[in-house]
Automatic annotation (TrEMBL):
Name of the protein this chain belongs to: tRNA wybutosine-synthesizing protein 5
SUPFAM superfamilies reported in the protein's UniProt record: Clavaminate synthase-like
GO BP term (any one): wybutosine biosynthetic process
UniProt keyword Transmembrane helix present: no
E.C. designation(s): 1.14.11.42
Keywords: Dioxygenase, Iron, Metal-binding, Oxidoreductase, tRNA processing
Cofactors demanded by this protein: Fe(2+)
GO molecular function, one term: tRNA(Phe) (7-(3-amino-3-carboxypropyl)wyosine37-C2)-hydroxylase activity
Gene3D superfamilies registered for this protein in UniProt: 6.10.140.1470, Cupin
Family: Belongs to the TYW5 family.
Pathway annotation from the record: tRNA modification; wybutosine-tRNA(Phe) biosynthesis
Top enzyme class: oxidoreductase
JmjC domain sequence ranges: 124-268
Length: 316
């Protein structure tokens, strides 16, 4: 099958705060930052070390019989394990103890103390391990939102989604393929909330998703020590090429009151956008009262107004 041509995500070396803020951040495009100091985690975070340091803390993890996790059809279950047992299972291919099958896949996206209210902060949930990890000072401390452990079995693939915060994804051990799509390709992504309905981005169902081929595919393979800047709203799909440990840091791009206050994951649409989407739902309900040809006409009328008023002339 002919897929989209790949565009490599550019790699920048010798990036410090000034270079990031001047040359990379304003472009609102993904970038791999190589060689930024992330601290002793790069040497220390072997599975054995992680198991010793994280020990008995209970973590809620995703477990699935297949490596491609799919949030739309929920082909995984949530299970709770001591961190040390989770790291053991995620770092091995076949398990002597398992929930679903002996080669099941594991994924941890760490959570806050009260997962429904508080964003994750590795300094609070993993204070000892957090000492090994330096959060790059590429944003002001009051913009900080969360820091999240991302630990995956080899082969684990995470569904395509966007987040509403800016994000630095640090790959500490293992390698990971990341495929990204621009927010300006939103019309080609078949969105369901913050997720794309195109589950298999390498072999998409083109009968169902013909427009997907029009989306420009950006790709990189993260090496240990790499940071990937994922600007807010950029779609991303990750695949662990090895057992891997990462941390990602979300921070606010908009003013603090622009975000939903009850959003521990950083994936609820900004307040103004959520309001606009609600108004759209109301507008569509109103159109439902018209005969189909009228609905079709006013639907197109609205699309044109939205396009004229909101689309940028150029791609960024
Ligand atoms: O690293 C991963 O597996 C997923 C990362 C991700 O979705 C994120 O950083 O927002």
């Amino acid at each position: 099958m002919e897929l989209q041509e790949k565009t490599d995500v550019p790699v920048f070396t010798r990036v410090n705060r000034d270079v990031f803020l001047r040359d990379i951040y304003p472009k609102r495009r993904p970038a791999v930052l190589r060689g930024v100091s992330l601290g002793p985690c790069l040497e220390k975070w072997s599975p054995d070390y992680l198991r010793e340091q994280g020990a008995e803390l209970e973590v809620k993890v995703h477990v699935s019989t297949v490596p491609a996790m799919d949030f739309l059809h929920k082909n995984f279950v949530y299970k709770t394990l001591p961190f040390s047992e989770f790291v053991k299972r995620a770092s091995e291919r076949k398990h002597s103890e398992f929930f679903l099958c002996e080669d099941e896949s594991y994924y941890l996206r760490s959570l806050g103390e009260d997962a429904r209210k508080e964003p994750a902060d590795i300094k609070k949930q993993f204070p000892v391990l957090a000492e090994d990890f330096i959060i790059p000072e590429f944003f002001d401390p009051d913009q900080f939102f969360s820091s999240v452990f991302r630990i995956s079995s080899c082969g684990l693939q995470l569904w395509t989604h966007y987040d509403v915060m800016d994000n630095l994804l640090a790959q500490v051990t293992g390698t990971k393929r990341v495929v990204l799509f621009s927010p300006q390709d939103a019309l080609h992504m078949y969105l369901s909330g913050d997720k794309s309905e195109v589950l298999d981005i390498d072999s998409p169902d083109l009968e169902k998703f013909p427009e997907f081929l029009k989306a420009q595919r950006f790709e990189c393979v993260l090496q240990p020590g790499d940071l990937l800047f994922i600007p807010a709203l950029w779609f991303h799909n990750t695949m662990a090429l090895q057992f891997g440990v990462g941390v990602n840091v979300f921070w606010r791009h908009l003013e603090a009151d622009g975000y939903d206050k009850k959003d521990p994951y950083g994936n609820k649409d900004p307040v103004c956008a959520a309001r606009a989407l609600q108004s759209l739902d109301r507008a569509l309900q109103s159109l439902d009262q018209l005969p189909p040809e009228y609905k079709d006409f006013y639907g197109r009328h609205m699309v044109q107004r939205i396009q004229k008023r909101t689309f940028l002339d150029e791609r960024y």
